[in-house]
Design a protein that fits this description.
Elements (H helix, E strand, L loop, with lengths): L1 H22 L1 E4 L4 E5 L4 E8 L9 E6 L10 E7 L4 E4 L7 E6 L4 E6 L9 E7 L6 E2 L1 E9 L6 E5 L8 E6 L8 E7 L5 E2 L6 E3 L2 E4 L8 E8 L4 E8 L4 H34 L22 E4 L2 E4 L5 H32 L1 H13 L1 H91 L12 H12 L1 H10 L1
Parallel strand pairs: 1-10, 2-11
Antiparallel strand pairs: 1-3, 3-8, 4-5, 4-9, 5-6, 7-8, 9-11, 12-13, 13-17, 14-15, 14-18, 16-17, 18-19, 20-21
Length: 485
């Protein structure tokens, strides 16, 4: 049996060689798919079988087909030339791609380092031999770049309330090949459990129907591909729908209650404005303030001007007059209100009927009565304050009398100064008269001792001059009067 199989194998090889020689060049890649993790290195091998055993030139090119995107026209990694063993590498892949070829071994290798998602496409090996253009001149394979899934993002779509339908979603932003998703459920005590009977798990979406309290718990999503896996978890708390309804109802009820209170306040304010004003018939509270104008005295040319002092007596009389006017005005308002009451008895009766029907309003009136009593107490306090101010006013009157006495003393002092001033004026007049007498005597002495050369102008004798002096100064009269007495 083994011998028979060996014979069949030799015949198959001979047949392949015969067919190859007949058909032409044959190029093959042993693997249909190559998988590599992103950032790793991959080696893709290509074998070729020419029609002729010996060839002067063999050209081997490695390329990548377009991936179908709009701006992708494909990739040319490089080309090998057998005549001088020269390799031409694309500038974009210098230092990243290598081509190693063995013409005798009829093998060529493409080596890619630090593979990225851009190399994720079909890779082609193309062999060119002059004179050997028939047969299969190229072969291709798929390069799959594996990328671990990113951490998935878990979300809840819908309202987690009793009887509602919700969905739990799980998505990884990247991953190659595309990751698969699986959901696991744990109860509130973190004990594993199976998914609800009607739940569906498809493409990372877990659909839950007619959720209840038992649906609450922890849910974990696992995203997995050929490289590795990643997880995310979410906590689901299903609440009764009445909780939200109760909160909404409470808010609405609070708004309605606040609006009702506002309307009631506005209504009460309007009713208070419509009711007639009541005036206190007692004596009004009168405040007294001390005010004293300064007195001024001006001296000049013997005239004195004084400003009179406006005392507290006139001020109090003005306050009492104002209080009587206010009392009369309040009495007139009271009489006007009584007149309006007699002129409109029907309106007054209606108001009394409404007051009798509304017990709440009567309680408000009682409160107002208590408030009036409080005002009466404050009025009594005001009366006490008025008495205190009256006492202070009496003290001010006493102070005013003291100031009046001081003012009278000042007047007496002023009169004394005026009398002294008159005496000084009299003394000044006496001095002035004496001064005039001295001037006359000086003039007379000058006339007596003056000599103009005329002896007639001089006294005839000493007796005449003496008589003239006696007549001038009145001494003769004084002597005569004394002699007569």
């Amino acid at each position: 049996m083994l011998v028979y199989l060996g014979v069949l194998a030799r015949r198959a090889i001979q047949l392949y060689l015969v067919i190859s020689a007949t058909i032409g060049l044959q190029v093959t890649i042993p693997q249909t798919v190559y998988e590599v993790a992103r950032g790793d290195e991959v080696i893709i091998q290509c074998s070729f079988e020419p029609k002729n055993p010996v060839n002067r030139l063999i050209v081997i090119s490695w390329t990548g087909d377009a991936d179908g995107s709009f701006d992708d026209e494909g990739i040319i990694f490089g080309t090998f030339y057998s005549n001088d063993n020269h390799v031409d590498i694309n500038t974009m892949y210098e230092g990243k791609a290598r081509i190693e070829s063995d013409v005798n071994g009829k093998v060529s290798k493409l080596i890619l380092t630090e593979v990225t998602l851009r190399e994720r496409r079909r890779i082609k090996c193309f062999v060119q031999i002059p004179g050997d253009t028939e047969g299969q001149t190229s072969a291709s394979t798929s390069l799959e770049v594996l990328v671990a899934p990113s951490d998935p993002l878990c979300k809840i779509k819908g309202t987690a309330e009793y009887g509602q339908n919700i969905s739990l979603t799980c998505v990884s932003e990247e991953g190659s090949p595309d990751p698969t998703y699986q959901w696991q459920s744990y109860d509130v005590k973190n004990i594993p459990r199976s998914l609800p009977p009607k739940a569906t798990d498809q493409d990372g979406v877990l659909s839950l129907f007619n959720v209840s309290m038992e649906t609450s718990g922890y849910y974990i999503c696992t995203s997995t591909n050929k490289i590795r896996s990643a997880k995310c978890n979410i906590t689901l708390a299903v609440m009764p729908s009445t909780v939200k309804f109760g909160a909404t109802a409470g808010i609405i009820g609070g708004c309605v209650a606040g609006l009702a209170v506002l309307v009631l306040i506005i209504y009460c304010c309007c009713k208070d404005k419509q009711q007639p004003e009541e005036f206190d018939m007692g004596p009004p509270v009168v405040e007294y303030h001390d005010s004293l104008k300064q007195e001024t005295q001006e001296y000049g040319s013997g005239n004195v001007r004084k400003t009179s002092i406006e005392g507290h007596i006139d001020q109090r009389e003005r306050y009492e007059t104002k209080a009587e006017k206010d009392s009369d005005r309040n009495s007139n308002r009271r009489f006007d209100y009584d007149d309006r009451q007699y002129e409109h008895p029907e309106r007054y009766d209606d108001r009394k009927d409404r007051r009798g029907r509304n017990e709440d309003r009567r309680e408000r009136y009682d409160d107002r009565s208590h408030h009036y009593n409080g005002q009466q107490n404050r009025y009594d306090d005001s009366r006490d304050q008025y008495d205190d101010r009256q006492n202070r006013y009496d003290d001010s009157r006493d102070q005013y009398d003291d100031r009046q006495n001081r003012y009278d003393d000042s007047r007496d002092q002023y009169d004394d100064r005026q009398n002294r001033y008159d005496d000084s004026r009299d003394q000044y007049d006496d001095r002035q008269n004496r001064y005039d007498g001295r001037r006359d005597r000086v003039d007379e002495e000058q006339d007596r001792y003056s000599y103009d050369g005329d002896p007639r102008n001089t006294c005839a004798n000493i007796h005449d001059c003496y008589d003239n002096q006696r007549v001038r100064y009145g001494r003769q009269n004084q002597y005569t009067d004394r002699h007569n007495r």
